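Morning F.,

Quick status update on the modeling queue. The single chain you submitted on Monday has been processed. Sequence for confirmation:
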Amino acid sequence: MIDGVILVWFILTFASLLFVAVDIRNTPESPVLKWGFILLVAYTGPVGLLLYVIGCREPLKGLHERYVAVLWRQVLGSTMHCVSGDGVGILAGAVIGAYLHLSSGLHITLEYVLGFGFGWLIFQALFMRDSQGGSYRRALSNTFLPELVSMNALMAGMVPLMSFMMASIPGAHNPLAARFWFTMSMALLLGFILAYPINWWLVSRNLKHGMMTVRPNGSPPVAHDSRDHGTIDPQTMGDTHDSHAGADGKTATGTEVAIVTIISFVMLGVGLIVTLVL
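Structure tokens below.
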């Protein structure tokens, strides 16, 4: 039964990935976010395809700016960017840990370190340094906190489900088996769901970018203001962690940032406790 479900899942995933890989070339989105959506669909199959179609794909030519300006789509872009980048490191850690036969604790730690490292150092800071004035050091500083709390929420969802499925499905520990990749897909999907609320707060407080629009004429990426479908300068996003003007006009104080950071670690802790109970 489970193998039949997995077969259907991967057939749908392949079809979804093929569609997005071809179609997204015509979507005026940032190249980084285009690759992010391709990775997300590879992780989450038809769910990722649905998110791309309703959240990023230009409905009519010339409408992308207005279409993606609404807050929930901005948050979708932010969460997708987090999960797609972190997912590469997490999957690498899962494969390495399986081959090294690491204990559960070391396995989870490796996945966290590689996921956070790849997501922060490469997918966030390196790939988005142009939106930080071209400074990699500045990008590292401004993306550290958003990446940290997003990663915590992502792993809070991933770890319990991954551990449960690997314990319940024979062969799910083997990276050469389809059951392993199905397990990781489901875990990343749940992690995405838990990371979405954290990213909502981050985007609404201007701590993270959401969707962008890049037109073929070579104009710079445009980040969108969900209040009036206007635009904001990506280089002003996340300039400081003391007071942040968000897309809805609200600001995040240092106290609020501290509270959300603590909440993210509590989420991660609860996820680890659930894993131990399971």
